[in-house]
Amino acid sequence: MKHVPLRMCVACRKRRPKGELLRVVLTEGGFLLDPTGKLPGRGAYVCPDNPDCWTEKKLRRFAGARAKALSEALMAHLGGKDGQNTHLPAG
Length: 91
Fold this sequence. Notes:
This protein has a single domain, classed as Hypothetical Cytosolic Protein, Chain: A, CATH 3.30.1230. Helix 1 crosses helix 2. The strands form 2 sheets. A 3-stranded antiparallel β-sheet has the order 4-3-5, with no helix packed on it. The chain has a two-stranded antiparallel sheet with strand order 1-2. Helix content is 21%, strand content 24%. The chain has 91 residues and is α+β, with helices and mostly antiparallel strands. This is Nucleic-acid-binding protein implicated in transcription termination.
């Protein structure tokens, strides 16, 4: 049986298989959404199917003062409240 890496959502703290979560990379220029999971830099994982995980308050643990900008970017890229659009452009 193949090993499936588990990662924790930075917002809700649930452990899920890496492929089920969306990686967000913190760069000097801001945030990049990394659906491939291969971009260099400090990254955190967020549930793409749970809008509660995209709130500013829950993202402060990872993003600090830039949590509001990250929250707005996630809302825009993940399709608002339904969370059905999980195929994201990187950037």
